[in-house]
Specification:
The complex is a heterodimer of chains A (258) and B (182). Chain A is mainly α. Helices cover 71% and strands 0% of the residues of chain A. Classes of the chains: A mainly alpha (258), B mainly alpha (182).
Chain lengths: 258, 182
């Protein structure tokens, strides 16, 4: 246990400094010697378990075996005594998710409400879009056959245009349904289908497609003589609706003929 | 180091003989204690004894003679230090009684000792963690570059680099302190 010659320690510090190319720094060397001084203390007095280990080397194997496992169950016991927060945390996280979702939805609603309150344009456009969304697709498709029939056949458009018109009145006013079977024996099936699906505009769309082959025989007279006298002759309640249709019918043949 | 184990003591320790254990303890524990003190452990003595309680029963597995024994003991000490730092990072901060606010006091010997130590340990505390570890293992634990590389699980080149940077940083800190003092 003799103290090693100071020269060896200094040599080691010198070697470390040389390694890093800092061998001529006296301040640094002093600091490192001071650092090495930390290891020059006497050995700490061994506590009970270590003293037992040092005294009875043969039973040494038994000592740590009794010490270490004794500590581990103690830790495990302590861990089992601690109430776990995991479940609570998960619940809180889920609740947090709901709260955040509700807050986001609420904030978006408030924002949209504020914008709607401030600008009339927005209100109008939203109203439009809502109406367009909730309108059945058949209504939007119903106008389209009119231009196609006009473009395709210049002479025939009038029948096709006139055909939907009475049907529209038929669907709009239920009394027309009983009238039509009385008048025309040719297409009772069509009319019954009318009356069955009287309210839905989809029925009207189906009719605009379906009746066209059957009707031409009746209707060709309509454009030749003039629309107004013929249409009232067939269904009585159709008269009020026709004035609305009137301006469009003459307007269409005019661009179609040239 | 202050002393070296003789070959007889070493072989006794490795064969599980208590006389060998006490020799190993009395010779190497000061270095382990200094290692823990240099790293700023609160209760360095308790940690040192933990290390030896852990290490001594396992000495029969140690290979590599003197340097193998040192490497093994400081590997365990390093692991204990890492554990200590992790544990202390989790435990709540202890606020100690501040003796400077207490009128009833006389100058304590511990304060003087700590004041003398404060120089290098406070400088070390300002270094990067790896650099500090390398310097302490090299100088306090008296290990070679290869041994430190084995303990820290790095290449010798990396250890040399860390040592060099640590020394340069330490030199700057020492210079600053000298400037401040003068």
């Amino acid at each position: 246990m003799s103290v090693t010659p100071a020269g060896r320690e200094e040599g080691e510090i010198q070697a470390i400094l040389l390694d890093s190319g800092l061998e001529d720094d006296a301040d640094l060397r002093r600091s490192l010697e001071e650092l090495r001084g930390l290891a020059q203390d006497a050995a700490p007095r061994p506590r009970a378990d270590l003293a037992a280990l040092l005294a009875h080397g043969a039973s040494a194997a038994g000592v740590p075996a009794s010490v270490v496992p004794a500590q581990e169950p103690a830790m495990r016991r302590a861990a089992s005594n601690v109430a776990s927060l995991e479940l609570h945390r998960r619940n809180r996280q889920r609740r947090m998710g709901f709260v955040v979702g509700a807050a986001v939805v609420g904030a978006m609603g408030l924002g949209a409400g504020a914008v709607a309150a401030s600008s009339e344009d927005f209100r109008n456009s939203v109203g439009h879009t809502v109406v367009r969304i909730f309108q059945p697709t058949s209504e939007t498709t119903a106008p389209t056959p009119v231009p196609t029939s006009l473009a395709g056949i210049p002479a025939a458009p009038a029948p096709t245009v006139a055909a939907p018109r009475p049907s529209v009145t038929g669907t709009a006013a239920s009394p027309s349904a009983p009238v039509t079977p009385a008048q025309t024996d040719q297409a009772p099936a069509k009319d019954s289908s009318n009356s069955s699906a009287s309210k839905g505009p989809s029925g009207e769309a189906a009719k605009s497609k379906m009746p066209t082959p059957g009707r031409p025989s009746q209707l060709p007279t309509v454009p030749g003589t003039g629309v107004t006298p013929h249409v009232p002759a067939k269904p009585l309640p159709a008269v009020p609706t026709l004035p609305g249709g009137m301006p469009t019918v003459p307007a269409k043949p005019v661009p179609g003929t040239p | 180091m202050a002393a070296q184990l003789t070959d007889d003591e070493l072989s006794a320790a490795l064969s599980g003989d208590p006389s060998g254990f006490s020799a190993v303890y009395s010779i190497i524990s000061p270095a382990v204690l200094g290692y823990f003190r240099a790293r700023g452990v609160d209760d360095a003595e308790a940690l040192t004894q933990d290390v030896f309680v852990d290490v001594l029963p396992k000495l029969s597995n140690v290979r590599g003679g003197h340097s193998g024994l040192r490497t093994f003991i400081f590997s365990v000490a390093h692991a204990r230090l890492v554990d200590y730092h992790r544990r202390s990072a989790r435990t709540p901060q202890l606020t100690e009684f501040d003796p400077l606010l207490d009128e009833r006091r006389s100058s304590s010997a511990e304060d003087e000792v700590l004041g003398s130590l404060g120089g290098i340990t406070s400088s070390l505390a300002m270094l990067n963690d790896d650099q500090r570890e390398v310097l302490v293992l090299r100088i306090v634990a008296d290990l070679s570059v290869e041994q430190v590389a084995g303990i820290m699980d790095k290449t010798p080149g990396a250890i040399k680099q860390l040592q060099r940077r640590g020394l340069i940083a330490l030199r700057e800190l020492v210079k600053e302190k000298d400037h401040a003092a003068s």
